[in-house]
Records
---
Amino acid sequence: MRQDTRMRLEIAGVSHSYGDLSTLDSLSLAGEANGVLGLVGPSGCGKSTLLELICGLQDPSAGAISIGGATATEARLARCALMPQRDLLLPWYSAIDNAALALRNQGMGRREARGAAAGLFGRFGLAGFEAARPDELSGGMRQRVAFLRTLIAGKPVLALDEPFAALDAITRAEMQAWLAAALRTAPRTVVLVTHDVEEALYLCDRVAVLSARPARIVAELAVPRPRAPERDAAVTDAEFVNAREAAMRALREGSR
Amino acid sequence: MRRRLLPLGLIAFLLGAWQVAASTGAIANALSLEDFLVPSPAEIATSLWENRGLLAENAWVTLKEILLGILCALAVGVGMAVLMHRWRLLRDAAYPLIVASQTIPVVVIAPILVVWFGYGIGPKIFVVALFCFFPITVNVLDGLRSVDPEAVKMMRSLDASRWQRLRRVEAPAALPSLFTGVKIAVVISPIAAVFAEWVGADAGLGRLIQSDLANYQVARQFAAVVVLSAMALALIGLTALAERRVVTWR
């Protein structure tokens, strides 16, 4: 994994529409290098579309997205790794082969790729599950394999689309603390889409609140203490609670 | 247990009824036929045993036609499906043609093939392949198209080339559909092979059945049908077994 690639993300006046349906309305946003940018908004507001635009899977109808200074589709595709909403682990591969998928795609041999992924399995609480089939893993473990698969691609920017939406409340809180720790050890520029305000405020450095479609920015909030080691203490902190209220107000405002 | 015993019981009952009706001459009398035209199961079994060499020889020819025909259908069908999946233009151009190919009455084309290519194994393989390639092509194409578009986006974002996407996502996802196609092909292939032999052949179960018909060798004719059915059932069983071994994630 390349650890030295710090890249800034810049979204400048991006609008997007499918035919007559306008989904994004001149958004401008920036994600600091190795910082976590949160996108919160009502369901169906175009957050997933924005991630696809960032990752170079689509091009915006207007405006530009630059990653580390490059705006070309191919450059964005090369510099971002997308973690889609559902884990999408491939059922015909074992956990380790799913995690090593990007390395195999990049031309690494199977043994070498498995070796590289195996080194991270222990660190991510997956030791002993290398050969497991995806359907033998719990929801939280599947999500960790999917995150590992995204991280291992070695891209400077990670685009995470509601990574924990499918999990129950307790597992979700655990996974948030886990992701915070993972990002402390392997910092990346991250764009995190979520509809969970608390999740955004806990994990991100900055949070942009989007309106209903066509999405525009209602508010941008700086987070008091991102990725604090003690999650439960952090989310009950007075400053955190105030930030959450502000975000909820902005969300309600934007949903109207 | 009950699931296995019930059909076996039914078969035993039907065979028993047939045995009694045939050996007492009841069927022959009812149809005003000579007794030898209505063989009993016991007579068919005797014929099966006495003619085992001849039946095996001809069954081998038919089996070769079936297997080579399915193999050709697989090669052409999977190849066509992958190409049509890759190039939309080709799919739009070729799909109607492939459907149209199924409307060709094989009854008409098989004799022409015999005229063109003679009595050997070639025209039989062609007829079997013509029957089998349609279910294989259509099912594989459907399987390839059924792939989750989100999975394709994930693969693109993880640096997968088109070929890698096909190999690691689309092809495995299409495997169950491929087996569905092959199972249909396996079921219809003996019919196709026998028909192709019927039109003109120097060997094979279909040809044996035809010549026995002309010589009133009715017991041996039934014996050949028994061999053909057993062969088809074995092929279906083998396909199901292969599916369970290959598609382990379902």
---
Amino acid sequence: MNDPLISINDLKTYYFTEEGSVKAVDRVSLEIKKGEVLGLVGESGCGKSTASHSIMRLIKRPGKIVGGKIWFEGKDLLSINNEEMRKIRGAEISMIFQNPMSSLNPVFTVENQIAEVIKLHQNVTKTEIKKRIAEIMSKVGIPDPIERMKDYPHEYSGGMAQRVMIAMALSCNPQLLIADEPTTNLDVTIQAQILELMKELRKDFGASILLIGHDLGVMSELADRIAVMYAGKLVECSDLTGLFQKPKHPYTKALLESIPRLDVQTERLRIIPGTVPRLIEPPPGCRFHPRCEYAMEICSEQEPQLAEVEKEHAVACHLYTSDKKSSHRRS
Amino acid sequence: MPETMLEIINLKKHFPILGGLLMRQVAAIHAVDGVTLDIKQGETLGLVGESGCGKSTLARVALRLIPATAGTVRYLGRNLFELGKKEMRKLRLEMAMIFQDPYSSLNPRMTLTDIVGEPLTVHGLAKGEEKKKRIVDLTKKVGLAPFHMYRYPHEFSGGQKQRIGIARALAGNPKLLVADEPVSSLDVSVRAQLLNLLKDLQAEFGFACLYISHDLSTVRHMCDRVAVMYVGKLMEVAPVKEIYTNPQHPYTEALMSAIPIPGKRASEKRILLKGTVPTPIDPPPGCRFNPRCQYSIAECAKQHPELVEIKKDHFVACHLRK
């Protein structure tokens, strides 16, 4: 259970634009254990989707994976050739996206699209494929699968289309499922259905899940551990309760206090001053320091490293690692 | 008791669907189907519901931005639908709106000064130096700096753009502000800034606010009263505390339990609704929620329940709560 299924070491993915290089993911290291759900959270533009696309090697120009290693089953995904990668993609690692309607091809039936995945990775007969599709569609809760598989994507509602995406992703029994904001575009009652489905599938399939999102509520439903990203860097990584009950990084703390809660009534929300920095010229030292209320001198000079400060709870902040903790607190 | 500002009485909006060889009307989308609701002076009324339930249409019809199919809307006692064009135009100044998408609701070829100054010019409120002063004032009020004055929308971030939208809405000193999902396209940290700003401005200007959203957590933070809408009809209207602690309609109850709470796993008690929202083209007979309702009884499929007051200020449309 505790062996890592995939481990990302020092991943760097940059986008080379005319204005300069955007360091979207900058030296990120992360592990996903077998059977666990890891939540990756952060605001838009923090690099969470780029990180997940890097795992699948789906980074397009002008983006490029500049450095690092991604170990998966004894292989470095970044150094194998395209042919080998294609065998892994969709079969061993698969992905669901935010907008199911635009991820499905509108001119093919659902049957066609799920069949494509199975055909590509497995050598099975036509009747076998059809049986498999019906099976997987009923597993993800699509009623009347034999009839429904003949329909086109536009005949599905948003929630049902997302179920099709999940069916497609699970059709080859992947070991890792990357879910990039799987419920963001759905209504709350439909979101609840999809979350419930993912919880059940997790039990059935035993796949590890990398859940990407910005909604901390959705994260809490599924994730075992949560990693927080800010401006291309991993700032904190902890188990679920540790993160919510004892958040360490000032960014995580502020983030948790800035969301209106359904269970507590607050008069005023916490504000994080300023905006997310541009990643072409990120601030020196800790990338959060210009917005941080605890910033010290060292924060603008030296980049903090991710270090475990409590069991299973790592944070990249000088407040926890530096000896100069008490001195030079900037007013 | 605060005076009623906007009175919506049995308002309906049906969009025709044309079809056939002669393009005759073959069906209608019942976007808003008999809604009665009022907004009191100075209060924030939250209008919540899932996408497609008609909440934005309701706001648009109520402000006479699109014609109504039936019903009446009274603004401070005057029937909006009976006013002439000129009179209506004057009233527009008092009823402002901010939109969901700050990117598409600002003209990319106008500077901040032009955008915020336009309502002042159109309504002849200020000219020359005075106008400039008003624009600077408004810009500062929404947390932007005077050096932003001559910038174009593309030079601003999403949160800043939404601030411009707010400044434009405030230019005419509105008495009623309709905010249609004002923060849903923004990031969490920026969202908090804007929610606080809206609250501050409301305290300062004293306008009433119709806050439309599908996000029940922000609604709880912002509103005094909440109205829950489902497929064109109101299901429940109650003070904010009531609706979150003591929801009476099965739909409200399910909606509340569906929201994931940060730091907590959902309890076993979560009510999981079956199926999806019905289309407003052919809504189910009787109570529109009955096909998905776990408590539904025979009567529910026959007749739509009226909105009745079951407790002071708490209205529910459900056969089980009569």
---
Amino acid sequence: MHEGTVETLDSAASPMIPQPFVIRNIRRETEDTFTMELEPETSGVLCSFAPGQFNMVYVYGVGEIPISISGDPGNTHSVVHTTRAVGTVTKVMDKLKKGDFVGIRGPYGVPWPLQEAVGKDVVIVAGGIGLAPLRPALYSILKEREKYGKVVLLYGTRTPSDILFREELERWRSRFDLDVFVSVDRAVSGWKGNVGVVTNLISKSPFDPHNSLSMICGPEVMIRFTVMELIRRGVDPSQLFISMERNMKCGVGLCGHCQFGHYFVCEDGPVFRYTDIKDMLVKWEI
Amino acid sequence: MESLEPILTSHPFFRDLDQKYVHLVTGCASNVRFDAGKFVFREGEEAQHFYLIRQGKVAIEIFTPHRGHITIETLDEGNILGWSWLIPPYLWHFDARALETTRAIALDGKCLRKKCEEDHDLGYEFLKRFAHIMEQRLTSTRIQLLDVYDVHA
């Protein structure tokens, strides 16, 4: 286990009771991915969270699902979630409009190890929608940029039209204190960027493998190959942190739905130190 | 004219290769440049060279009648482009097109094959190094085939 604190939206409330939040803004990121900005119905409630944490989002009458927080931790007046419309709940969520309500419980889970990353190069590797839970970490790092060494963002996705936070990526790319590399798995003529898996970017990225910490989020297969490539580059396996996805239900380590070996992903994760779970990552039974 | 030997010596592909072999290989090397949009090679052509990309970006493509040019992978600074020079029938299987102005060192395939036949230690070194590149490209292709970002992956 590494550092991390959990602050609840409303510490006085029961952790199992969702608080009503109103949808203030909806932004379409890609054909099937959207970002919602939510504000608490009750004024004065602070939406503090640590990068990497998630909320349980309840779409009334449909169901509740875990969604990582994708907004700026510096903004405590609203909470931002980016998700893909793929399941029963998210497909209904995709049809909600400004002014509609959802229920929120959280934030839950162990965050990214920003304190441990101080003084080191930081290599952020994101795949697909995995960029969403990493964005708050990047906001935090950029806010205190002088505390870190080189900062590299490697982002892989399916096609150019699946790229998330496109304008923000362009802004980040123009910064001199941040290296951003994007690669897509498939492209047709017209795309002038990189084509190939995100792991291809690792060998040529400008960071010192002997003094770096990496945060990785994406599909599990992508995570496994990313870890292999980072270790091949020379990064200490104990300096690799990955965000795991399992079927989280209660969010507070009670129900056992998200059990991963002897861990509950909702409480002991979703961010894990690679060396703590590496033996379980390749076990089919877990 | 400045020798290409120091550039080859410092390239990761030739790391730890005996200097006498680097010297030998330098005799097969030349500087090349491709403007943006120009083909480095075309599918079906004789594979006469392989390339150490020094600057720029090259797309490995294949043309299909209904989908046009599909990019399979892009290669840039530090990457090796092409291994068909090593394997009969020495024909390119894909197109390679410069996406931006690209500078590279071209190594003459026939010249290298001759040197490898004359000295099997050199040939084994080349095969080991290309096997490593092929393994990396095969792994990448397998991950691409998995389509890990698909909803149902």
